Amino acid sequence: MLPDTEQLMAIASHYWPASMKAALEEGNPEFVRRSSRWDEALQFIPQWHGFLADLDTLLPGFTVGDGTVPSQSSFRCIAYPAKGVPLPPVPWVVVGCVSILAPVFTVYGISFEYEGRKRREARLHQSPLPEAMAGTARLIAQELETRFGVQELPREVAAIPVPVTVQWTEPPQSTLFDALFDSEPTIVP
Fold it and tell me: Which of 84, 114, 129, 164 would staple 133 via disulfide (CB 3.0–4.6 Å)?
């Protein structure tokens, strides 16, 4: 069952400090709790890697990568619509995130503009996604829900401001999306 908004706000406040000053304090209690939660979540790395391998099989013609960074609050998979080493410039990617803090997930897209082979701009897309990304996003969402028993966090709930500092994002800009998944969602390899 999807936690209600009040529960999600409490979770965000439990794992992220209220101010930048508190965030910069060494060993702040929220950081300690989040680090402990990551230690617990890392026990599921074999299952996560199995999920990525299966997703790679389900998406022929795609490169599936792991975009998980422990400074954020989720495991992240990235589906690039191309293969190759090095990977050629791609017009877009689809990203799936499973929160380590709550039983929720999200799937979003990123489109890119390039100057030559160098990315110049990344644009975030949330539901409804552009048609080119929609099928891939649906597949990733189904697999996340089935594999991990998590529910999709509705976009309108994800956009709710939270009174916490997530990395360098401070209130009133910080949202449940930032706290539960990633405060810099367009940064992908």
Answer: 129
Pairing between β-strand 151-152 and β-strand 118-125 as defined by DSSP bridges = unpaired
187 within some domain: no
**What is the span of the domain harbouring residue 41?**
5-180
Q: Does the pTM exceed 0.90? A: yes
For the segment 35-68, what is each residue's pLDDT rounded down to a tens digit?
Answer: 999 999 999 999 999 999 999 999 999 999 999 9
Q: Is residue 185 part of a domain?
A: no
Q: How far apart, in whole angstroms, are the C-alpha atoms of residue 70 and residue 119? A: 24
**68 domain-assigned:** yes
Alpha carbon separation from 171 to 5, 10, 18, 47, 161 (Å, rounded): 17, 15, 8, 35, 7
Is residue 125 classed as helix, strand or coil in its secondary structure? strand
Q: Using one digit for the tens of pLDDT, what is the confidence trace for 17-44?
A: 999 999 999 999 999 999 999 999 999 9
Question: How many structural domains compose the chain?
Answer: 1
